[in-house]
Structures are given as structure tokens and as C-alpha cells.
Amino acid sequence: MDALWIFPGQGGQYAGMLKQVPAALRQHVETLLDLPLLDTTAGYADSVQLQVSITLLQVAQVQMIQKMGFRPRLAAGHSLGVFAAAYALDCLALDDLFKIVKQRAELMQQAYPVGYGMGVIVGLTRAEVTQLVAQVTTTAKPVFVSNQNAEDQVALSGHLVAIDQVLELAKAQGAAKALRLNVPVPSHSPLMHDVAEKLQQSLAKVTFNRPHGIYLANDNGHAARQIIPVRRDLGDNLVHPVYFESMMAVATNYAPDVIINFAPGHPFKQVLAQKFDEQHQLYLAQFSKADIHYLLEKWERGSNL
């Protein structure tokens, strides 16, 4: 079975999502990081709690599926999801993974503790959004065109006042949707340069293994099979937009027959339906462990016929 595993980033979190995580794994991570995880709405207002918790949930799901005997041919992480994607391909050891994720979150939170974030516009092209941003951005209150999740879905990163101004202009221009995202920092913009530089320095000291599969890079969608491009993408993707649409376009070239969407949430359901209309798709947040095992085994038998 040729499977594509997709790991979302921030935005789909919800109170209680760590109930799915085995107690031993959660305790190990909390002890390792000296970080009691709150798993509450208030707790997830904190970037460190949020990023570590999402990664923990995804790692628990990776381990669950691996114990069932399944591994990915391709792995694609969106923003924070790159770390679980790298772990799923055996690039990173568990403890190194969580130490880096915690440091990443701390650096991001320290750089922009308040007043910054992200937004999304649906229904306008990237060129149209770029024109709106040019009307608003200033040195004091900058805003940037950020992630491209679909042809007509463009993210913004920057100062919240500037983001709100762009969102209002987008609505006036006929956008189908224009709203803030539940992300408390201006990810994937030049504002994250210093954070990315420090993160790259830390990653240079971490042992990486060659991926056991194909890693799809955030900034260009390219397929990576070596350590260097994976390490680079984990370190500097905060500075660049995530071109998820390009990542999925590259994935179609490998013709996966199963797509597994990891929790939390299902932010890419619409774009995946457009790109992969014949493949089996599984959203882990919607199924029990027993049902997940049943479906994967069923599809595995079908792919071997």
C-alpha cells in the first residue's frame, strides 16, 4: 500500500484532545520537557503548550499505526506538522523531536508575545491578496502574504491590526471567507528570521537519519530523500510560506492509493478532495482505533490484488 501521511499544524486544537494519548507516552514527554500539559482551552493560548501537545497527539497516532504494521511512502507536514512527518519517516529520535518542538515554540512566543498572528482569505488569488497587502503593510504594522493551501486559499501573517485591515478589503473585493486564524504568532513570514536562525543552529547539533520514505518540503513541495533538505525545512520553514498546494501536486506524481490525515482537525479536506478524488482517505480524528485498523487492513488487501 502506497500511503501519503499528512500532518496539520496549529488551528485544529481542542480541549481534551490528549485523552487519546497513552498515559506512559504523555508522562515521558512531560518529564523530559519539565512541562505539565494542561489540555484545556486556556492552556492552548500558550504557544509552548499548544505546539508540544499537537506534536504529542500526532506522535501517538504515528506509533499506533506503526504498531499495526503500516508505514508511509510519503509524509507531508504543514508548518508544525513537519516534525511529526520527519518522525514518521524515522528521521528524528523521539526525545530530540520534543526538545526541538519546545524550543521552537518558546522562541516564537518570546519573539511575538502579543499583537501578532495569522489570517486566511478564501476566494481570491494570491496576486489579488498581494495587491491588498501592499495597500496596508507598514514598517510599524507589517503584514505579509503567507501560506498557499489551495489556488484560492491564501494566508496572511503579521500585525493583527494590519491583518484585520486586509481582511476587510478582501471582503469588500468579494472574498468568500476572510478571517483570523487561531495562531498567536506571525508564522511563515520574514518576521520569523531570527527564530529560524536560532532553530537551525540547534538542529545542526541533532542527529538525523536518512528518511525511510519521501518527505515533501514546505517551501517548494519538492520530494526529499536525504537528510540535508529535511533538516533545512524543519529549521527555516517559519520564514517561508507553506505551499501546501504544491506539496500535494508533487504527491499526485507518486499516485498514493491511501491518504491518512492525522489529527487535530481536517483543514485540508476540500483541497485533498480536489487533488485526490479516487484515493481512499482516512481522517484519524473521526475513527476509533479498531475502525482505523480494519480500514487499513482492508485497503492493504485491496492494493495487493
TrEMBL record:
Q: Which Pfam families match?
A: Acyl_transf_1
Cellular component GO terms held in the UniProt record: cytosol
Malonyl-CoA:ACP transacylase (MAT) domain mapped to chain residues: 6-291
Q: Does the keyword Transferase apply?
A: yes
Q: Which keywords does this chain's UniProt record carry?
A: Acyltransferase, Transferase
- SUPFAM superfamilies, per this entry? FabD/lysophospholipase-like, Probable ACP-binding domain of malonyl-CoA ACP transacylase
Swiss-Prot/TrEMBL catalytic activity: holo-[ACP] + malonyl-CoA = malonyl-[ACP] + CoA
This entry's Enzyme Commission designation comes to 2.3.1.39
Entry keyword annotation includes Ion transport? no
One biological-process term from Gene Ontology?
Answer: fatty acid biosynthetic process
Q: Name one GO molecular function term.
A: [acyl-carrier-protein] S-malonyltransferase activity
The organism sits in which domain of life?
Answer: Bacteria
Q: Which InterPro entries match?
A: Ac_transferase_dom_sf, Acyl_transferase_dom, Acyl_Trfase/lysoPLipase, Mal-CoA-ACP_Trans/PKS_FabD, Malonyl_transacylase_ACP-bd
Q: What is this protein called?
A: [acyl-carrier-protein] S-malonyltransferase
